[in-house]
Design a protein that fits this description.
The protein is globular and about 45 Å long. The mean pLDDT is 96. The chain is α/β, with parallel strands linked by helices and 186 residues long. The protein has a single domain, classed as Peptidyl-tRNA hydrolase (Rossmann fold). It is built from 6 helices and 7 strands. Strand 3 and strand 4 form a beta hairpin. A 7-stranded mixed sheet has the order 2-3-4-1-5-7-6, with helices on both faces.
Amino acid sequence: MKWIVGLGNPGSQYKDTRHNVGFMVVDELAKRWGIQVTQNKCKALIGEGNVGGTKVVLIKPMTYMNLSGESVRSFLDYFKAEVADGIVVYDDLDTEIGKLRLRYQGSAGGHNGIKSLIQHLHTQTFNRIRMGISRPQPGMVISDYVLSGFPKAEREKLTAMVEQACDAAEFALTATFEQTMAKFNG
């Protein structure tokens, strides 16, 4: 079984914000694969399906970003899933808007959702698709920035980035994450 978790915040007020690009990817994968992400389980909305012979679980934590690790830990325990079989998709301030950075380990880098995952998984080693949202203009409060929407000028890059992240996640179902990184980084 493979699992993909998109980090974000529940609620319509956060739907199209920079912090919710992980949810955007899960929603697009659900559409692409015909999976309904509607089961309320493990402090998350979950959808299970079969993609090319591989069982896949899509996860949207409902704990809010800063507590994402609680939901993922609950999922892993309930489904007896392995950390190595998952991919975490989330926003990254240090990557330019529209770009992806795939990694399989590292620190939280100031991202509270990743900090929570590291705390609850007891490891910094897990597959990640980091989606670029760029840094705000000097003087702008980071929390205000990540909870803001994308201006019209960035929407085309956002759409392409979500598609590329979905392609990477789909590729990773049948390839190693190292192969996925080689194909989709840069």
